[in-house]
Specification:
heterodimer; A: alpha/beta; 2-enoyl-CoA Hydratase, Chain A, domain 1; eight-stranded mixed β-sheet; six-stranded mixed β-sheet; 23 helices; 22 strands; 41% helix; B: mainly alpha; Ribonucleotide Reductase, subunit A; two-stranded antiparallel ribbon; 14 helices; 7% strand; globular; Aromatic_CoA_ox/epox (chain B); oxidoreductase activity (chain B); Ferritin-like_SF (chain B)
């Protein structure tokens, strides 16, 4: 296998970012190490980034929430002169295989969404302080911040030069945020996205590409002042956070072991079985107890392990196209852990854990693997874990007793959290999305909160795809898996991505659906990636040789 | 009657699949069996249901003694579930998986393809029973009546065999398909049988013999190719079905042969030498040879249609997947993958019948049909021997493949039985010489008078050379129940 991409890191290992914590304001400084690329063959010049840079950023954003709840404003800025960020590294993109480009874009998109949502979810506002060139993925970083300040030094500009320069799209949310978030008029957006040099100064503000333009001489002072103002306007949550220690993880040839998550790899069957285990410790008696448990509290530990497993499998096990998700454990205990969080959702840590689950579940939603959940005897699909049943493409549930199986009867339990705590990217709950044509079904399901729903009932309520008894279970599951593994992975990805997101579009679904799909199409086209395409020719002084046929 | 409440499946159903310990199939069969018995009871006239029929029952798969003969009431027939013995280390014989161990379980990748093949095969089995349901009323002898019922109960057993596979290996879907096999019925407007040829009633005994000779032979060829399947349980099921199918071929071939024999004998006895002296021959209560040829033309061409399109991607997929082989696949000397081979098929170009080369993989149907034609020609030769021996100048012939076709490249075009293209007008002018007319049907029907005395035969058919199970000529094959 090629080198394993590890999504776990910590501040002692950062090469590209540093954070200065000053009370309720943190300065997040991008200072990419040119020679610190994840792979050989390119240098990360001009604060350009690759996946490794983004893994650090994601770690920072996550730690900001859990380890630094005192921070209310994060000022993103450059540690280099004359450049804020030049975007994704072009040589890296030019040299990367298609699958890596796609995975890279997905992860960077998820990271952008994550810090963009930090203001609403966690009371942490990201401010981009842009000085120097801010192009492509660099501007997309700024776009995902909640406030953009641009220096008016007659030189610094924001730009999305991908189209004219590279024949690809600003695919990390750029095109979408310009129109959907910044609400730039579409004809001006067209002008902006087709120009290489970008927009400077007052015009950038007039077009709403940035929130404010500040004279260069006053830039640093204004940024600091603005950070203070924003911080002052945000209520305090906590003075001290918890520590996110390294996960207990053991990557073996055919398995990945965590404390609560077991990942079994079946390479011949091209599938992965992910088992989430129920609580192995007592429910925290109070939120103070929850804080005292820190990163060891059940739902936080489980979320971190599942999150890491998803990222590991997505990036390092691309041939395993089917993920089988199962749970084992005490459903009542899962509900009790969740109930503590729900009862204290105004508490910063309880809130962070719930928000984190929202993000992890969204990661499941946009994972381009066939997903199936098995509700077996002894399983604990309850509350937050029940969300997985409707995140996956199909759900199979055991019906009646199985010979020689004395585990508790398979059942599903809904909690109030299934009705709004973990919305999908389309801003609907998974149940609302599932029952798009029958909203009354969702209302009806509310009356079943807390009920232990066994197979036949679960089928009646539309919560599972198939219920199968002892006689049929093994064979039906095996045949489904074999069939699934035999289909074209491309067709599966396309089909699943289309079926999973019924209902309204949001900026998020537009990024993961429309923008990403177009970008991935372009990433397959010779105009971009062919031997004479723009990505290969970049830096040679010769423009890409385009096939001029419109498709 | 069978005690439906207390069915002891191991004693009531001869089987070599460990039925009594197979919860899955037992549960499924318990639900399916009553429907089957209802289907059977509704089908055959009641007095025949109550009659004692001298039937063979498959009780094991031992080639030396797989069946036993005894009197049995048909609803009490023990429809067994029997698979040919497992061949050790059997390999997938063809296609992209050739050489890999045969599948003992359904490969998920081909589940739907396999299921469809089994359902289509299964659908034909009860269909023929439905088509032949009234023939007992006009049986030319108890011997023939017994043969009819033998064929019927064995087609019933073949339905069981397919239902077993569906219930054993295809889970919920399989059980639904098994139920639908009983829901569809031949000629029904609501839910007809899947293949057109199986929705036509078998109106008379000559049709029955022609059907068993020609159409059951298509079934035999399908079974032969499924017997090559890489899905081992299907292969084993079909291999055993073929042992019974041989009797059906026999009933057809000897039935037509005895009809011809009788015609020749009567012609000779009355000094008629011209086989085309039709009215004179008919007046003697036998069926003239040209009319038998017309029946042959009809049934042979209808059966050719069952093989489907000459060039077929479905057949190619099934072969390449290794779930359906060619006739005698293991004896064919090639790579069994057909990646670069070609095969000669008929085609039409500018209204002319031509032969051309196409990729062999897409011509699997055509190849099986050619094997069928060769197989079918054998009996025709033996019929001609009977005519020759009687000194009559007449020769039965299989018509050209282009004649009277509804499926394939020749469909919608007119040809004579020698394969010459014709205008519509020319075809209409001659078609009554080639295919049976309603008047022919009326005549044959007029001969269909039951003969229920042991050892007696209707006017139009000769007795068999030997009895079933070596029974003497006056053996009472069916003890009729007289209500």
């Amino acid at each position: 296998m090629a080198k394993i991409i590890d999504f776990q890191t910590d501040p002692s290992e950062y090469r590209h970012w540093r954070v200065d914590y000053n009370g309720d304001v943190a300065n997040l400084i991008m200072d990419v190490d040119e020679n610190g690329g994840l792979f050989d063959g390119y240098q990360l010049k001009l604060n350009s980034y690759d996946l490794g840079v983004d893994i650090e950023l994601a770690d920072i954003v996550q730690r900001m929430r859990f380890e630094h709840p005192e921070v209310k404003v994060v000022v993103m800025q450059s540690g280099k002169d004359k450049v804020f960020c030049a975007g994704a590294n072009i040589r890296m993109l030019g040299g990367a295989e298609h699958a890596h480009k796609v995975n890279f874009c997905k992860f960077t998109n998820e990271t952008r969404n994550t810090f963009e949502a930090a203001e609403k979810d966690s009371g942490q506002k990201y401010v981009a302080a842009v000085k120097g060139a801010c192009a492509g993925g660099g501007y997309e970083l700024a776009l995902a911040c909640n406030h953009i300040i641009l220096t008016d030094d007659s030189n610094s500009a924001v730009a999305l030069p991908e189209v004219p320069l590279l024949a690809v799209l600003p695919g990390t949310g750029g095109l979408t945020r310009v129109t959907d978030k910044r609400k730039v008029r579409r004809d001006l957006a067209d002008v902006f996205c087709a120009m290489e040099e970008g927009v400077r100064g007052k015009r950038a503000q007039d077009w709403n590409l940035v929130d404010e333009v500040v004279p260069n001489s006053k830039f640093d002072a204004t940024v600091a002042e603005r950070a203070k103002e924003f911080a002052a306007a945000t209520p305090s949550k906590a003075a001290k956070g918890i520590t996110l220690n390294a996960l207990k993880r053991d990557i073996a040839e055919d398995a990945v072991h965590y404390s609560l998550v077991e990942v079994a790899l079946d390479r011949a069957g091209r599938k992965v079985t992910i088992t989430l285990n129920g609580p192995d410790g007592d429910v925290p008696a109070s939120v103070d107890d929850l804080v005292a448990q820190g990163d060891q509290s059940y739902l936080l530990r489980l979320a971190r392990e599942l999150d890491d497993a998803i990222l590991h499998l997505r990036n390092n096990e691309k041939d395993l196209g089917l993920w089988v998700i199962r749970t084992q454990g005490d459903a009542e205990a899962v509900l009790a852990h969740e109930a503590l969080l729900l009862a204290n959702k105004d508490h910063w840590l309880a809130n962070e854990i719930l928000q984190y689950w929202k993000r992890v579940l969204k990661r499941v939603d946009v994972t381009s693997r066939s997903l199936v959940a098995l509700v077996e005897h002894g399983s604990c699909f309850a509350g937050v874990l029940a969300e997985l049943l409707w995140a996956v493409d199909r759900t199979y549930m055991m019906e009646d007793e199985f010979e020689g199986d004395n585990r508790p009867m398979a059942q599903i339990t809904l909690s109030e959290a299934n009705f709004g705590t973990y919305p999908m990217g389309n801003d609907l709950t998974r149940l609302e999305t599932r029952f798009l044509g029958a909203p009354e079904q969702v209302t009806d399901l509310k009356s079943h909160i807390g009920e232990q729903i066994e197979a036949e009932r679960a089928e009646d309520l539309g919560l599972v795809t198939y219920i199968l008894d002892d006689i049929d279970w093994d064979d039906e599951i095996r045949i489904f898996m074999e069939e699934r593994a035999s289909f074209s992975p491309d067709a599966m990805t396309g089909m699943e991505a289309n079926l999973r997101f019924a209902g309204p579009e949001t900026m998020e679904t537009r990024i993961f659906g429309r923008l990403t799909a177009w970008q991935n199409w372009i990433f397959q086209r010779p105009n971009a990636v062919g031997p004479d395409g723009a990505l290969q020719r970049y830096g040679t002084g010769v423009r890409g040789d385009y096939n001029m046929q419109r498709v | 009657m069978l005690d439906l409440i207390n069915v002891s499946y191991d004693t009531q159903i001869p089987n070599n699949v460990g039925l009594s310990s197979d919860k899955r199939v037992l549960k499924a069969l318990e639900k399916w069996h009553p429907g089957y018995i209802n289907w059977w009871s509704d089908l055959i006239p009641d007095n025949f249901q109550q009659s004692l029929v001298y039937l063979r029952t498959a009780v094991s798969v031992d080639p030396k003694g797989w069946a036993k003969f005894d009197y049995v009431k048909m609803p009490e027939y023990r429809w067994g579930i029997l698979l040919a013995p497992q061949v050790e280390d059997r390999r997938i014989p063809c296609g992209e998986h050739a050489g890999q161990p045969a599948w003992q379980e359904v490969p998920g990748e081909y589940r739907n393809l396999l299921k469809r093949l089994i359902v289509i095969q299964g659908d034909t089995e009860p269909a023929s029973v439905e088509q032949q349901r009234f023939l007992g009323l006009t049986a030319p002898s108890l011997y023939d009546m017994r043969n009819l019922f033998q064929v019927n109960v064995e087609e019933g057993r073949h339905l069981w065999a397919m239902v077993y596979l569906l219930q054993k290996y295809f889970g919920k879907d399989g059980r639904e398909e098994a139920d639908d096999l009983l829901r569809r019925s031949s000629g029904s407007e609501e839910a007809p049988r899947m293949l057109g040829a199986f929705n036509e009633e078998t109106p008379d005994w000559l049709s029955f013999f022609m059907f068993t000779y020609f159409t059951d032979r298509d079934g035999k060829m399908q079974l032969e190719s499924l017997a090559q399947s890489g899905f081992d349980p299907l292969s084993r099921t079909c291999r055993f079905m073929l042992t019974e199918e041989a009797h059906h071929m026999f009933v057809g071939e000897t039935g037509v042969g005895r009809t011809i024999q009788r015609t020749c004998e009567v012609m000779n006895a009355h000094g008629i030498t011209d086989p085309y002296d039709i009215n004179k021959i008919r007046d003697l209560g036998v069926i003239d040879l040209p009319t038998i040829q017309k029946k042959l033309n009809l049934h042979y061409t209808l059966s050719l249609d069952l093989f489907g399109q000459e060039v077929s991607t479905n057949a190619a997929n099934a072969f390449n997947a290794g779930i359906k082989g060619r006739y005698m696949e293991s004896r064919i000397d090639d790579d069994h993958k057909l990646t670069n081979d070609t095969y000669t098929v008929w085609d039409l170009e500018d209204g002319k019948v031509v032969q051309k080369q196409v990729p062999a993989l897409t011509a699997i149907n055509m190849r099986l049909r050619d094997d069928y034609t060769r197989d079918a020609a054998g009996g025709v030769g033996r019929w001609n021997k009977i005519i020759e021996k009687a000194g009559i100048e007449f020769e039965m012939k299989l018509p050209h493949e282009s004649f009277h076709r509804q499926i394939g490249v020749f469909a919608g075009h007119n040809f004579d039985p020698d394969g010459n293209p014709l205008s519509g007008a020319d075809y209409d002018a001659k078609v009554n010489d080639w295919l049976p007319t309603h008047a022919d049907g009326d005549f044959i029907q007029s001969l269909m008078k039951p003969v229920y005395e042991p050892g007696q035969y209707a006017s139009w058919i000769s007795p068999p050379k030997v009895g079933i199970d070596n029974k003497p000529g006056d053996f009472e094959y069916v003890k009729l129940h007289m209500a």
